[in-house]
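Q: Could you fold this chain for me?
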Amino acid sequence: MLYVVIVFLWTSILLYLLLGGADFGAGIIELFTSKHNQDNTRKTMYRAIGPIWEANHMWLIIAIVILFVGFPEIYTTMSIYLHIPLVIMLMGIIARGTAFSFRNYDAVVDDMQLIYNRIFRYASCVTPFFLGIIAGSAVAGRIDTHATNFLDAYVFSWLHWFSVAIGLFTVAICGFLAAVYLIGETDNEKDRQRFIAKARTSNILAVIAGALVFVAAWVEHIPLIQWVFGNVVGITAIGLASLSLLLLWYLLYHGKTKILRILAGFQVTMILLTTTYRHFPNIVLLKGGAYLSLLDNAGNAKTMAALGWALLLGSVFILPALFYLIYSFQKKKSSVAH
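A: Sure. Below is the predicted structure, expressed as structure tokens.
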């Protein structure tokens, strides 16, 4: 049952990156859209994520609950030594969600709408940036559980070039996902071409940010190249991601957008697979070569069994309802369009 829990943990992280990441990316795209196009972008984005935007955070909640219940030592270590980026990320989620609600559902339309818009856009950048910082800090080997001062324990554990580079890469990935997803959400050819252009730009930025991650890893003496290309799974995953990237660009160039979402999601999945396979089962690398393992630092057998069954039974009830929610709103949008 331990491996069932681990699969749910990995899947919840992936789905949060794919769905929640596109959610954040919509705000990023809106931030970097010219003022005379922001209204159209906002309306398209609302039609796409408005009905289900809160459901995307379910995957983050599942991941946190799994760590809290099944891997308390890992949860405790991360929540203590990475509490600053964690708090900023959670504040970003709260601020972004609040601004999204008020700017779309506020009964009074006044100058506060401008503030809501700014909060939504900037929080959409800040949140995935610190999500990336947390992910980078977990594998950077900079968390010092024996630190004797505040800066070493709670600041330098996450504030370094490698984690910052991964934060920028995460922001670029979110923008890329959102641009690709939004292409199919509009029937206006002008807006469609605009989203295609943004998909190209954000993809280029993601590639540049990815290169910066490798540069930062070299500066910080982190063997990222060995982690990625030192095993068959990593080489295969990166190869498939590269091939899908070429296909994606070909389809964008020829205006064929039907499978773009699948290709974009596949690329992100391959990236996550590459970065997690090399370290499994070690989920947190500590300073000095120590680590926290999903196998060695798991809860007792009874706890893991109860958690595993809860996840399995819960998915039977929750997932069909979630898929039906998405289907019903997609069907509603299709009927309105026709």
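A (continued): Residues 2-337 form one domain.
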